[in-house]
Amino acid sequence: MLAKKTDINLEHERLSSLINSMADGVIALSEDIKVVMYNGAALNILDINSGMIGARIEDVFKLVDANGQQVDTKNLIKNTKVSTSSRDYRLQYPDSSFINLYVSIAPVHLGYGKNGDKGYVVLLRDITREKSLEEERNEFISVVSHELRTPIAIAEGNVGNAMYVAEKVSGIDSIKSAIKQAHDQIIYLSDMINDLSTLSRAERGTLQVDVEPINVHELIQTLQKSYADQAQKKGLDMHIQLDPSLELLNSSKLYVKEILQNFVTNAIKYTEKGSVTVGARPVDHGVEFFVSDTGIGINRADQERVWDKFFRSEDYRTRQNNGTGLGLYVTAKLARLVHADVSLKSELNKGSTFTISIPNLQPVPDPHK
Ligand code: ADP
Fold first, then answer.
1. Which of ligand 1's atoms lies nearest the C-alpha of 312?
2. Which of 109, 165, 201, 221 has the most Cβ atoms closer than 10 angstroms to its Cβ?
3. Which of 288, 234, 241, 240 is nearest to 266 (CA)?
4. Which CATH number is correct for 129-206, 1.10.3470, 1.10.287, 1.20.120, 1.10.760?
């Protein structure tokens, strides 16, 4: 019996020195969200000198969310059914100063075996420095992309005019080709600036979702019209597949359009022969759109990475086209804003289909009306 107790003590000591050597704050909570265990790093992060055993979590720390709203910490933890984490919380100290926190919450068995007490483990990490670097980088991207817009637009206009004039003169083929190349590069820069600027707005959380009724037929037909020329220049057919029973979709027209435009641009860019098809059909609570192509396709390993920031496939056929690797990253961000699910099916050398299922959203009432 004595030996057993010593074993348990030893194990307890081991566990306690283990969690005390962690750089992250760890707090174990009982089922009724009271502190049962914590480490030194948690005291440091929370700036508390006294013991916390038995304390209610809402008395121990106060969290503020990305919109500056006070978070009901107790409920947040109580409603956590599977392990979750967030980098968007801030911890507010009594003197109103704050730090940015990475918070991970996991429901656990605190005791042994099936009958062990249930509870939660909360992990806290101070990410103020990382966050401020992130914010500075976003600020930099936002300012730079804003400042580059005007000179690029002027250059595009002038080179576009020169191209138009040069087309009418014979015998200056090398000049025409030089101007065309310059024009292509300016268009590429301008697309990149657009991506960067949407990206920085998305990352700062300043993108607003204006919900309005969208006529899906009209949206897709307009899309087809604006890309028909580009597709035709590459010898590609462009088809539309619209379910006749489609009704209006309540969502952000701006973002839905931008998402589809990104899919269609890629489909045309990464298809050498065949066709691009854009379609839509009604699904439960919304509309499912798809853009499919008969292009170069995406290998399995790359399929998992196409949504990553700056990812571009190493495939030489991808590299023959200009690109920033930001389009699908921005698309995924916009999709999240409108609560949509995106998916991809692709086979190398056969083609790809990008699908997005967009739910109907409640229109946000205009406070000025
Ligand atoms: P990019 O500016 O490179 O087109 P995206 O973020 O739009 O950036 O796409 C990321 C990568 O995903 C592309 O570089 C390409 O490798 C791959 N990809 C996207 N769409 C397609 C497609 N329709 N067919 C083949 N590959 C694609």
1. 14
2. 201
3. 234
4. 1.10.287
CA of 315 to the centre of ligand 1 (A): 10
Q: Topology of domain 2-126, per CATH?
A: Beta-Lactamase (3.30.450)
**Confidence band for 69, pLDDT divided at 50, 70 and 90:** confident
Distance spanning both ends of the chain, measured CA to CA: 75
Alpha carbon separation from 274 to 104, 237, 291, 350 (Å, rounded): 48, 6, 14, 10
* Percent of the chain residues topping a pLDDT of 90: 57
Q: How far is the CA of 329 from the centre of ligand 1 (A)?
A: 10
Q: Are 286 and 358 in contact (CB under 8 A)?
A: yes
Q: Would you say the CB of residue 201 lies under 6 angstroms from ligand 1?
A: no
331 in ligand 1 pocket by Cβ < 6 Å?
A: no
pLDDT in tens, 317-326: 998 888 888 8
**Residue 298 near ligand 1, beta carbon < 6 Å:** yes
* CATH numeric code, 209-369: 3.30.565.10
pTM of the model: 0.65
Residue 351, ligand 1, Cβ within 6 A: no
Q: Parse the chain into domains and list their residue ranges.
A: 2-126, 129-206, 209-369
Give distance in angstroms: CA of 152 to centre of ligand 1.
24
> Ligand 1 within 6 A of 199 CB?
no
Residue 241 binned pLDDT confidence (cut-offs 50, 70, 90): very high
DSSP string, 43-91: HHHHT--S--TT-BHHHH-EEE-TTSPBP-HHHHHHT--S-EEEEEEEE
Tell me the pLDDT tens digit for each residue of 325-340: 889 998 998 999 899 9
CA of 296 to the centre of ligand 1 (A): 10
Ligand 1 in reach of 277 Cβ (< 6 A): no
